[in-house]
Amino acid sequence: MARSALSRDEVLDTAAALVREHGPAALTMRRLAAELGTAVTSIYWHVGNRESLLDALVSRTVTDLGTIRPRGTTPTERIVSVARSLRRALRERPHLVAMVHERGLTERMFLPAQRALAHEAHAAGLRGAHAARAVRALQFQVVGYVLVERNRERAPAQSPAEEELWREEAAGSDAELARALAAPIDTEALFVDSVRALVDGLLAGASGDTGDGAVGRGPYSL
């Protein structure tokens, strides 16, 4: 029996969950209706056709990434917190982020995070092109890191694996290095280390060179 009450938000929540787990191709109106225990006509009433539903999911994804807020007491802590939040948001929504990119809204999606980073760059004493380079460098660091993570996760099993290769080097001149590289990767800790190192380098020139204004272009689809 079809359910009697349904909200637009519930439809979008369920649709987003389907896309996150199975990709956009799995999102059909019939499957969505089955997940919600309602009639297909009810889905159309709340969100329109499938293209309208996809547009609504894209709009919601853009809005969600606008909720990132810095945390911490120093510019470095706050910048790292933005980077961590952005990485987590991208990791949780790969298919949705790809849909945003396909609709030409990537720059709009990243704008709130850029604004937050720019604010913290100003708080740290960076201005003009130097601040712009810092924002772009951090943005590329986050997106590039997520791309590498996803590629590693989707890669076929390697034989021998990295751990096995470095285990063979454990008797060399730097056994501690070999053991560390043979150990599983703590991707969160590695990410924080890399962002902190980048931030330290960027903020070290806060009162110095303002650069030539050369900045990169935005990131691409995950």
Account of the protein in words:
The chain has two domains: 8-48, Arc Repressor Mutant, subunit A (Orthogonal Bundle), CATH 1.10.10; 69-204, Tetracycline Repressor, domain 2 (Orthogonal Bundle). The chain has helices spanning 8-22, 29-36, 40-47, 50-64, 75-92, 94-102, 106-123, 128-154, 162-167, 175-182, 187-204. Helix 4 packs across helix 6 (94-102) and helix 5 packs antiparallel against helix 7 (106-123). It starts with 7 loop residues before the first helix and ends in an 18-residue tail after the last helix. By secondary structure, the protein is mainly alpha-helical.
Helix proportion of residues, in percent?
55-70%
Structural class of the secondary structure composition? mainly alpha
User: What is the count of helical runs?
Assistant: 11
CATH level 1 name of the largest domain? Mainly Alpha
Rg result: 22 Å
The H/E string reads HHHHHHHHHHH
Number of domains: 2
CATH topology of the largest domain: Tetracycline Repressor, domain 2
- Strand % is under 5%
* Anisotropy-based shape: flat
* First-to-last CA distance: 40 Å
What low-confidence regions span 5 or more consecutive residues with pLDDT below 50? Answer: 208-221
Number of separate strands: 0
Major sheet characteristics:
none
Second CATH tier, the architecture of the largest domain: Orthogonal Bundle
Mean pLDDT score:
86
GO biological process, one term: negative regulation of DNA-templated transcription
Protein name: Putative transcriptional regulator, TetR family protein
Domain HTH tetR-type: 5-65
GO molecular function: DNA-binding transcription factor activity; transcription cis-regulatory region binding
